[in-house]
């Protein structure tokens, strides 16, 4: 379940132990509320894990881009050096 589905699913009153979430929750009462609490806990944990995974993915992408930037900077330095050598030969 992605983050949007999670937020949409948890935005309705029926998901808070009231009903239409299964036979136990349809019955309401303490068991329905306990079931709703367990589901909330599960989805909260799932969302935290998804966010952690997303942050790591972004960190990995940042590292890859920074590495590529450094590679390009080194290539630029090499080209400037070659250009300078050519300019010195022409003089």
Write a structural description.
The structure is a single chain. By secondary structure, the chain is mainly alpha-helical. It has one domain. Helix content is 81%, strand content 0%. It contains 3 helices and no strands. It has helices spanning 3-9, 23-27, 29-90. The longest helix has 62 residues, at 29-90. Residues 58-91 are annotated as: Disordered. InterPro entries: ATPase_inhibitor_mt. Belongs to the ATPase inhibitor family.
Termini separation comes to: 68 Å
- β-strand number: 0
Order of helices and strands: HHH
Question: From the helix content, strand content and strand pairing, which structural class follows?
Answer: mainly alpha
Largest sheet: none
Give the mean pLDDT: 83
Low-confidence stretches: none
* Total DSSP helices: 3
Strand content: under 5%
What's the overall geometry?
rod-shaped
Rg from Cα: 28 Å
Q: How many separate structural domains?
A: 1
Q: Helix proportion of residues, in percent?
A: over 70%
List the main descriptive attributes of the protein structure presented here.
91 residues; mainly alpha; 3 helices
In short:
The protein has three helices and no strands. It has 91 residues and is an all-alpha fold.
How is the secondary structure organized here?
Elements: H1 3-9, H2 23-27, H3 29-90
């Amino acid at each position: 379940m992605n983050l949007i589905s999670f937020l949409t699913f948890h935005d309705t009153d029926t998901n808070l132990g009231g009903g239409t979430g299964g036979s136990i929750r349809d019955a309401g009462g303490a068991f329905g509320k306990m079931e709703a609490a367990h589901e909330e806990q599960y989805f909260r944990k799932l969302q935290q894990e998804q966010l952690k995974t997303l942050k790591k993915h972004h960190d990995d992408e940042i590292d890859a881009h920074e590495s590529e930037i450094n590679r390009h900077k080194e290539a630029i330095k090499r080209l400037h050096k070659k250009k300078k050598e050519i300019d010195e030969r022409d003089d």
